[in-house]
Amino acid sequence: MKDRCSVLIRNALVFDGTGVPPTREDVAILDGRIAARGPALDASRAERVLDAGGLWLMPGLLDIHTHLDLELELAPGLPESVRHGTTTVVVGNCSLGTAFGSQRRNGDDPILDCFARVENVPKSVLGKVVDRMDWNTTAGYLAHLDSLPLGPNVVPLVPHSMLRIEVMGTTAAVSRPPTAAELRRMQELLESAMQQGYAGFSTDAIPFHYLANAPHTDKRIPTQNATRSELRSLLDIERRYDRVWQCTPDIANRLRTFLRFFFTSGRLYGAPLRTSALTAVDLPHERRTWKLFPAIANLLNSRLVNGRFHFQVLGTPFRMYAEGAICPIFEEFASTRQLMSLDIEDTAGRRAIMATNEFGKLFVHEWHDPGAVATFNRDLDALRVERCPVAVWCGESFGAILRRLREFQSGRADAARSAEESAALASFPSPIGCDGAFLLHLLRRCDRELRWWFVVANDRPEILKRLLFHEHMLPGFNDSGAHLINLAFFDGNLLTLQVAARDSVALVARAVQRLTREPAEFFGIDAGRLDPGAQADLVLIDPAALKRYDTDANRQMIRRDIFEHEQLVNRSDGVVSAVFIAGEEVWNGQDFTPALGTRKLGRALSAGANGQSWRPGELRTG
After folding, report:
1. Which domain holds residue 501?
2. 49 CB-side CA count, 13 A
């Protein structure tokens, strides 16, 4: 190395994102970019030398499915993502986002309306974000991002629900198709965004995504009111620009979902459409379902169909938490949907609804209805208590508590292990009857003081590994920034690396490729590389600490001042030894450096410029 450099990282085992076996190298950084790579670079010209012996070095990781649009406005450094090695995030997913600003017009408040229930974010938190919004166009949003002291790079999608609201207003967007003029206007706005460099377009079809504001709490979010012809007309624009369609399934109509996936087909529509779909999972209550995902993806990417399709995959068991009935799954039942339509903080409103006989009868019926749409296992032995007013129940399954209750009600007073438990068991109606009646009583008695969890999917490591490394799946779906009290998968990419590390170094190289260069190329953005000249976004990982890391033991609820609210987060401290964004160290293994959130490091990444589409293998900046 003849020229000076600001940082020289020495003796690292370098995974460059191409999938080739790692090599022990030095990496030099200058002016925010990779200046040189190679063995034994000259350290005499370096301002700082960092010995990375025993560590892995790789490009910064991509989080391909987030709802961090909101946090960007309050903490643009995105510290909860950065500490786990994430240096690029995709926002505007599931048809929701902030690309058009607050969209507050004619009494509408669309950000609160769409995000509060779908992502279980309190309106008090959302209000803090919306009050800061001073743009009203997709171009304005890009300019706004450029003004923020971004930590990670940001890849924005155009969200369909917000696009519909922008053109039609909220009431029309959830009640009727667009007029011909309205559809033309949507097409114009989407085309303009593609010319500005947006990476794609997002829609949503999950049937229990509802609006949060009266008078529309019985309406699903706007994207779900779109006809096939409306969707096709907008996707034709994505196809022409070779951009990404991010979509979600209608689990109540699997055939309809399957047929819509054929929009990816180049055989049917002239050119393939890049399609990124949620999500390949292994369900505990439907053990064969996981096999459908590889089969569908193989078909859609076959020469017969000629698609460009993948399912996103979460790299860990999908553990979901609930506080009383505050949980996304409870949008599936008409009974608990009434509770979810209220703000998270409206305890009195929920208690009033739950106290009624009508609610109780409907809840018990739906809990036991075998024909009900259910994305989760309703076996009480699979539902476990984390926190509740009865201390001895913490850590137990609902099933274990119910069996002890039945013993108690049969006359065995010694079934209660303490006076506190005896009083709690005595409070249940006798005889308790069915599982639904038991859970109903707990919800009524405790509301949010009862915190419990269950695994929605991916509980079999061998099946999860097959999904993560299938050629037509893509890890990096972490849902970061969504469901503040229900989910925490900020460390999801690290867990994919952990799965690979248990197998071989060769599989780690493949995992790095799948978390960096591969998604960057799919989204058409300049990221995920360690080539000389590339922006120096890179991560150092301690493989020994990664091997020991237990995500469940390191998930915790903290109060975040930016939200003035609690959030469930992960703490992988020590696994990630350092994170650099644009050549600046922002995480040192134990804490953030002063640069994060105060200096502009990341940027809004463009998938193309001036309407020119990118070609596979060609990485462009806007």
Report:
1. 61-318+456-469+476-506+563-570
2. 13
